[in-house]
Amino acid sequence: MCAGINLQSGFLERLISLPFPFGVHHISLDDTGKFLYATGEYSGKMAKIEIESGKTEVIDWGPAPSAPDYLDVDKKGRYVFSGNYYHSTVGVFSTSPFKYIKEIPVGKNPHGTDVIPESTLVLVSDKLSATMTVIDVEKLAVKKVIPTCAGPLHSVMDVYDKDGGTYEPGKDSPEGLTSKYAYESCFVADSNVKIDLKKLEVVDEIPTHYRTGHIAISSNNDYVISLNKFSTGLFNPTGLVYPVNFELWDAREKSPTYGKTLRIVPVDGEPHNAKSIYASQIKRWNMGQATKGGLITKAAVDIRPAHRADAKVYLLPKSKEKPGIRMKDGVKEVHVKAFSYGYIPRQVRVNKGDKVRIFVTNIDRAAGITKNPDVTMGFVIYGPYGLRTNLDAPRGLSC
Known about the structure:
By secondary structure, this protein is mostly beta strands. The chain has one helix spanning 386-389; strands at residues 2-6, 11-16, 24-29, 35-40, 45-50, 56-60, 68-73, 79-84, 89-95, 98-105, 110-115, 121-126, 131-136, 141-147, 152-157, 181-186, 191-196, 201-207, 212-217, 223-228, 244-250, 261-267, 316-317, 324-328, 331-339, 342-344, 356-362, 377-379, 391-393, 397-398. It has two domains: 2-287, YVTN repeat-like/Quinoprotein amine dehydrogenase (Methylamine Dehydrogenase, Chain H, 7 Propeller); 306-398, no CATH class. The strands form nine sheets. The chain has a four-stranded antiparallel beta sheet with strand order 3-4-5-6, with no helix packed on it. Strands 7-8-9-10 form a four-stranded antiparallel beta sheet, with no helix packed on it. The longest helix is centred in the C-terminal third of the chain and has 4 residues, at 386-389. The relative contact order is 0.08.
């Protein structure tokens, strides 16, 4: 399922269902803004979605096991590129017609797959090879493999207009965009590396605090934001969840604080991807701009979060019940154990008209190579009840 967020109000406005089962991991817009592409990490499928109608085309990506991961669309609208975690390849798909073209072998277990603004190169973060594979878009072949860091996950790049100035959508032409540097997160190395896109080599490494997963860059190219997902310990716990953090560092080469951390902000959960846009691009509903091409067009709009409507969610002591379904006083009680990264039972089906009570217990103790002691598990029911059941279960508690 894909969600549409109204940037004027900040609330969920629309859901687009994908064929079940799909297991969507990542999505990417094409250059027209009319089509959305999605990877089915748990099903080995790829999807093309017409946003206006919701019409979806699905392609199976065999052989199994197949795990399409992060994807990006060629800025000229020709290709979709997606890493396949189990195949250790990048798949190439044409956009029209939507079909599989070929696989390109890359490093072990690729994660981030990003097309630079010129649409000439694809940057692939080879998670377990400590390299970046650079793919030539015209030749659809590997151009260079760059040693980068331990545990590379994701890349972002700066964007400049054709005159070399900061690109501002709506003011500058999207033609002739270019990049100077890419930045790649290094999960195991606790750092970000800076890659010169002309020389195709690493030119700097910036320490982060700690375990950067995703990475973002400010719209004006001045700052890089590291989303440090397993970085507990920098802030005292003030509630049920140990905070992790966002870290802002200075990417301005002529700045006296270049490469230095400027601010670290505590956040909850596992930060998982971020984008930066200019505030001027958003039409503000509270400033009377909604009728000037904005998304809010009705005279009165209910802006309460839809997922809170009629929902009752409670935090309880850790349940000791075994996972499964049992009847109690005419109600089907569903007990789910959540851990990194899965659920027991994996699927639960009930009959229409049943009264159902769900208990979700986070049984995590540590996650992955970091042995992180605090992992928040999400839970949501597939389909129309999704808006009412979205919850976060802290470690050692039930919801």
